[in-house]
Amino acid sequence: MKRPLVILCIDRDNDIYEKTGISGPIIGRAANLDAVVKLALADPEDSDVNALFYALKLYDQMVKEKEPVEVVTLTGDKGLGYVADRRISSQLDRITRELNPSGCILISDGASDEEVTPIIRSRLKVDSTKIVFVKQAKELEKTYFVLLEKLRDPYYAKIIIGIPALLILLISLSAFLGLGWEPVGIIVGLYLLIRMVGLDEMIMTIIKDFRFSIEKPGWIGYIGGIALFIIAGYVGFQSFESQQANLPGEKLAGYVMGSIVWSVFLGLLLIMLGKSVDALIEKRKYEMTRYLLYTIAAALSAFLIWVGSLWIVNLNTPYVDFGTFLLTLIVCLFLGYVSNWAINIYRLDILKDMKLEGKEAVSDHGVYLGKVVGVDVKKGKLIIQTIFEKKYFLPLSAIVAIDEKVVLRAGDRE
To answer: What class does CATH assign to 360-412?
Structure first.
């Protein structure tokens, strides 16, 4: 049987789900037609409607020509950025595995969807691309209404209004404190750098993992951790004030880092203890191993930063040279590797006692992957069966959490 060509429609800002409740990937003509009709009724001005109708029109044309073809819509996230791209990547991996397409025709409404093109090309041969534009008059008042429409969108409103507001606030505050333009430049530069590499989305993903409820005993660890973070901030400020006139820039930075690193580590340790207590009470042993790994990573990082700060400053004993710092780095990397290896062995022992067969498998973005139909502990493999009754393997290390469902890192598929 000839491999099908996929007509691929991209909804990077996830308007379809936000306005209709239909989540991606949307596979097949009937499902896509249902989605586009509901989207058109919910918001007739949405440009995704035009792109979806164009994709369906092209599908019908190719079917008439008796070409093997399928139409698929991939959805991202309303916040765009790293999270949206991860979700699209996860859905695209599923499509390539289940449909085994020969290539794709990429349909987009332009704007932010174009940014995901390199992700598509990394997994599929793109035979053609089509950006669907809405035919509009180009008078100035039309542009005005388009801008007004964008301002109603929370994502664009944060960019168009939020960033200038933040700049004005920072400049005013810096002028009031007599600090000049330099601090504003540093903050703005760091923000733009973080946005460029998508680190902000990664940070938000980690923060979401540390949600807590006042009804669980783990909140005590959070309160203690936050208190230690505040203390670390105060100690760091005092260290900066006391040595600002005595130390050059790099030594001052090393001195401040050395003064706060252990307070920050203890704060993280209390949070990890709180999360571990919650997991222990709820009998989530597998998740406890993740918190243990976080704790070890934090301890090794704190020790390395502390030794590094001693090497940079070198004001008091024990004096540290570059060789000692390099040896510490190597030892920390080795201990990190050994810890990860030991925890993975412990995880395998936990999985032996758990009944995973029959549980639903979902990605860490909430995308349904299929059902667990088998576990090969010796080979370290998890067997997933999709809704199309196709089976594939995942390493057991891809498991993020286990409760009523098995949560997996979709990017670890084999």
So the answer is: mainly beta
